[in-house]
Each structure stands twice: as structure tokens, then as C-alpha cells.
Amino acid sequence: MQREWTTISVTRPTGGVALINLNRPAQRNALSTTLLREVADVMLQAQADPAVKVVVLTGKEKFFSAGADIKEMHAGGFEALNNPSRQTSWDAIAGFRKPMIAAVQGVCFGGGLEFAMLADVIIAGQTAKFGQPEITIGILPGDGATQRLTRVVGKSLAMQMILSGEPISSEVALRAGLVSEMIPDGEVVERAISLATVFATRAPLALQLAKEAVLAAYETSLSAGLAVERRAIRYAFTTQDQREGMAAFIEKRPPVFTGS
To answer: Which InterPro entries match (predicted)?
Structure first.
């Protein structure tokens, strides 16, 4: 991950954790094709790097992301959204197999919310706002909100947000299950890193298998999802980490997981 980025910054705040900070402040972290490509590049590197167990995504104190880059879309029309390079980047981020946490403060609108929903856990600041305002400029969400938001918060609230374009508070987002925690502004990134550090102590293969099984609940029927879970736990029982974890429990010592 040692390279120069133009729209993001990447750090390693603790062992096993990579922190990606969206860094287009003048554009309120609008999701340009370049930004998405850089995030995707980091994700692909992190996926291949055994030293990275968890990725945390964050923005600025006043805005996580205001959404897609409207100037790009105004100039390029639908093809700006449907750009193969942009879609490849989006798919790479969505397909990241390790745990991903979004630390959201301030505005999280449009494509920014769709981007945040790619994370496995969203931690929100008290004054964060979540919205899908695309309807106010004559379009609709095009990066997954009609599907992901509905699956998370239910039809009624998703319809309200998408058809009105009006945002919801972090308190409403917490009640709806869109975020897992609402904490004071200024403590969000620290909390996300703390949670990521906990995740990073767990067995790496079990983390990936558990993530895959939970995500199957959004893609399949109950019976098919249970089959995914069964296959995952069957595989987990073949790993060295399973043997180490259970031995450590019996011997009353911390486990030493190796990802094997």
C-alpha cells in the first residue's frame, strides 16, 4: 500500500487494521471515478495481504461523502455512472472478503450512503445524516440503494427516503438497523478502529466464512442460506485455527491464530 494517492489517504493505525480516509474535501468527498478506483486498489491489495485483517472506511468530520460526482454525471450522462472502470471498482469494493467497517460522521448522502452500505458494520456520529436525495435532481439511486437500503431498513422507510429525498438522523438510522452504534461526534473513527482491532484478533478464515454466511441472508432463501452456513462451518472445522481455538479454550490461554 506504499504509493501516492490523490483522493484518499491510507494508514495502519493498529496491527491488522488498514484505515482508508476519503480525501476530496473541496468536493465533500464526492465519489469520482478516480476515488473509487483508488479505494478498489487498496481493497485488492488488502485482500491479498495477510497482515491486513480488517479495513475501516471514513471521511471528514462534516461529511463522510456527499454522494456521486454530479459534475462527472452532468458531463457524461448515464455513461459516467455506467463506466466499466467505475463499475469494476465498485464491484471490487463490494466483493472485499475481509471485514469492513464504515465510520460515518456528518453528511452521508446518495452514492455516499450506497458506498457506506458496502461495509459490514456502520458506526455513526450523533449528528450524522443519511439520505438518498437523487430524486431531487430528477433521477433515482443507481449504485444499489433501491436494493440494499430496502433489505436493511424495510420497504416503508426506504420508500420514504428514496421518494422524498429527505435525510434521516443517526438516531433513526440506529433504530432502523442501518447503523450498529451511534456515538458522540469526534469519537467515531476511534471506536471503529477499536472494533476493527477486536475483529483482527479473531481467526481470519472464520471471519471471512462468517461474513460470507451472513451476506448470504440477503441473497438467498432461508434454506439456501442455511446451506451456505453449513458448508462454511464444515470448512472451518478443517482449519488449523479451529484446532488452535478450541485447544486454547480448553487450556485457558489466548489463541494464536495463523489464518490456516
So the answer is: ClpP/crotonase-like_dom_sf, Enoyl-CoA_hyd/isom_CS, Enoyl-CoA_hydra/iso, Enoyl-CoA_hydra_C
